[in-house]
Amino acid sequence: MMMVRKSKGLGERHQKILDFIASYQREHKHPPSIREIGIHCGISSTSVVNYYLDQLEKNGHLERDRKISRGMRLTGNTPLGDMFRVPVLGVIQAGEPIPIPSSDFNTFTAEDSIEVAMSLMPTKEKGKDLFALKVQGESMIDAMINDGDIVILKPAQDAHNGEMVAVWLSDRNETTLKYYFKEKDGYRLQPANPTMKPIMLKKTEALEIKGKVVMVIRKVDRYN
Amino acid sequence: MMMVRKSKGLGERHQKILDFIASYQREHKHPPSIREIGIHCGISSTSVVNYYLDQLEKNGHLERDRKISRGMRLTGNTPLGDMFRVPVLGVIQAGEPIPIPSSDFNTFTAEDSIEVAMSLMPTKEKGKDLFALKVQGESMIDAMINDGDIVILKPAQDAHNGEMVAVWLSDRNETTLKYYFKEKDGYRLQPANPTMKPIMLKKTEALEIKGKVVMVIRKVDRYN
DNA sequence: ATAATACTCGAACGCCTGTTCTGTGTCAAG
DNA sequence: CTTGACACAGAACAGGCGTTCGAGTATTAT
């Protein structure tokens, strides 16, 4: 009954156009013209570009200011400017396992997410597969992280000494954020607050590193 | 010798054009045309707009892609996209007074500053006269703020109970970040970490509120 | 006063750009 | 096979838009 040409919603060309607009805008700070889109996407006719642009507008991926040159803008979670979008996968709390990114967490799930300015991002892990978690409860206080804070993590299964990691201690059924140190007899999980004592783990105890902490953001609007 | 028409660097019209471009871009996600600038800035001729645009380009406030419609972009500290630029006025540490914004801190001082996504901003204090300070030393640990953290503040001389404020205790020659509570016999400055004891102040002791904490950002790249 | 400089206007030129129309080839349903 | 929706190309049109030029008006220096 229903005919499917290439894929259901977005064809390869739709995606290519969308990507080009985003990269062009990022570089030039203004959208491309129809003809420029055509050239860079291998479309020889302006009418075809217009054809796709109309579809993208119908699907809600794009907004157009008709009659205005370069009058288009990407909608939805395509951050313009120099910022990064990080999906908030869930909450992190002491007694619960850590949600980690699934394979297809980059899909069009317009789930909850936050935007972070590129210029704030440490090192060059600019927006690989970063993800964010909202801290629930006050169990991370010894990591100097409060209830309601947002932690941005980079997925990882292991870590170097001195890195702050999110770990799941299955033996203790506990999630925690600590500085990671491997020692001869096991592991040491050091709180950020030097006045607090580290957790010492024997090699036999399970320790699952879920990610490295890249950034912590605390919005202080808990007053009224 | 030197002739000064209106002001030295930027005339009123230059500023008006700059502001219009910024607001137009923020709303439409693409730059305005020369004619649009003319209309909204009270300039009847496109050549005059072009005239000012050339000057702005020469002064480095603008970049132009000649021959390309709407081919202009603001340079310097004019964040595109939906983000906010907050100037970093200095450091905050226990033994030093708190730098606060001067009257003309919005001028073209291309000093150090950070960008924060609009969507991260609490409440509607979107970028009034916010400013940021870099925390130096570990004296703010009881506010769950670590060495190297960036705190974003809103200027204030007083506060409501329960708000986190940056205060300067001149009697003790001390700067600190605490939750503020006014009590019958004085003030109570409560650390964020509930396991730590508050500072009790008599009414006679000087307490200068310098700002309210709006946000805390911690970049965790202290590993290599 | 005179000249120089800064600023403003209006109009015209021509490329840039979005729009529209006609035509072609493909593929699946009837 | 025929039909029709779909994907695409090319050309032509009209208006958008940056550019340029000639000219007029202030303001300032000499």
Q: Your description of this structure?
A:
2 copies of one chain form a homodimer. Chain A has 224 residues and is of the alpha+beta class. In chain A, 17% of the residues lie in helices and 31% in strands. Chain A is built from 3 helices and 11 strands. In chain A, the strands form 2 sheets. Chain A has a 9-stranded mixed β-sheet, with no helix packed on it. A two-stranded antiparallel sheet of chain A has the order 1-2. In chain A, helix 2 crosses helix 3 (46-58). The termini of chain A are far apart. The model of chain A is unreliable at 1-8 (pLDDT under 50). The interface between A and B is large, with 53 and 53 residues.
Number of domains of chain A: 2
Give the helix tally of chain A.
3
Distance between the termini of chain A: 57 Å
Biggest sheet overview of chain A: 9 strands, mixed
What do we call the CATH homologous superfamily of the largest domain in chain A?
A: Umud Fragment, subunit A
Q: Name the structural class of chain A.
A: alpha+beta
Point out poorly predicted stretches of chain A.
1-8
Beta strands of chain A, count: 11
Tell me the radius of gyration of chain A. Answer: 23 Å
> What is the CATH architecture annotation of the largest domain in chain A?
Ribbon
> What's the quaternary structure here?
homodimer
Task: Estimate what percentage of residues of chain A fall within beta strands.
Answer: 25-35%
Helical content of chain A stands at 10-25%
Shape of chain A: elongated
CATH class of the largest domain in chain A: Mainly Beta
